[in-house]
């Protein structure tokens, strides 16, 4: 199974971002990400055997219980691999709470990755850089203007108080839009071993 561990912004935060982006969107080479799939990836697990799911869930629940909730908002933006030759446009994640919140989110991502490895599955991806993917480009382009626009944006704050384990099913056809399904959620700062609550994701 193709899975990832993520932070899922609430519907209100995603809708606020969409209201900001909609009048500014250009067609061109942009392939915009569906709003209902907005997320911040903490750990990408490209190929998880189904028999590992129970242990993975238990280890993620334990890892989440060791971290504290945060307050976050979607704000600012950037591009990967860089602004001058961007292939991916993204919004940023701002943690405006207590001192050390950025480090706490880094530790949360590290804990999720360690939990996956301990459960016996592979973790893919480079250094954790919190972001919400907005659009991808077929060819590299200078995204300076778009990043400047995004730098004027700051969405509403929301409690970052749980992690989600999400399955990603690749679609068919030329667009190959993935379908996401939330398998379970894990509260931050909760009691160790608390059972995850599954919930649907549109």
Describe the overall structure.
The chain is built from four helices and nine strands; from the N terminus they run E-H-E-E-H-E-E-H-E-H-E-E-E. It has 202 residues and is α+β, with helices and mostly antiparallel strands. It has helices spanning 11-21, 53-65, 101-118, 144-150, and strands at 3-7, 30-32, 40-45, 70-80, 86-95, 131-141, 158-160, 162-169, 179-187. The protein is globular and about 45 Å long. It comes from Nocardioides scoriae. Hydrolyzes RNA 2',3'-cyclic phosphodiester to an RNA 2'-phosphomonoester. Its EC number is 3.1.4.58. It is an enzyme of class 3 (hydrolase).
Keyword list:
globular; single chain; four-stranded antiparallel beta sheet; 202 residues; 4 helices; Cyclic Phosphodiesterase, Chain: A; alpha+beta; 24% helix; 9 strands
List the helices and strands and how they pair.
Blueprint: E1 3-7, H1 11-21, E2 30-32, E3 40-45, H2 53-65, E4 70-80, E5 86-95, H3 101-118, E6 131-141, H4 144-150, E7 158-160, E8 162-169, E9 179-187
Antiparallel strand pairs: 1-3, 1-8, 2-6, 4-5, 4-7, 5-6, 8-9
Helix pairs in contact: 2-3
């Amino acid at each position: 199974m193709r899975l990832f561990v993520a932070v899922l912004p609430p519907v209100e935060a995603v809708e606020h971002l969409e209201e900001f982006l909609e009048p500014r969107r250009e067609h061109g080479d942009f392939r915009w990400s569906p709003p209902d799939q907005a997320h911040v990836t903490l750990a990408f697990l490209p190929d998880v055997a189904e028999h590992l799911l129970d242990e993975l869930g238990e280890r993620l629940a334990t890892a989440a219980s060791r971290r504290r909730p945060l307050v976050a908002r979607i704000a600012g933006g950037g591009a990967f691999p860089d602004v001058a030759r961007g292939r991916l446009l993204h919004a940023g994640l701002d943690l405006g709470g207590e001192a050390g919140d950025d480090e706490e989110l880094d530790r949360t991502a590290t804990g999720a990755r360690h939990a996956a490895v301990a459960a016996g599955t592979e973790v893919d991806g480079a250094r954790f850089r919190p972001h919400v993917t907005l659009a991808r480009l077929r060819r590299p382009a200078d995204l300076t203007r778009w990043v400047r626009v995004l730098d004027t944006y700051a969405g509403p704050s929301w409690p970052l108080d749980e992690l989600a384990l999400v399955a990603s099913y690749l679609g068919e056809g030329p667009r190959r839009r993935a379908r996401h399904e939330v398998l379970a959620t894990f509260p931050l700062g909760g009691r160790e071993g608390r059972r995850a609550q599954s919930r649907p994701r549109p």
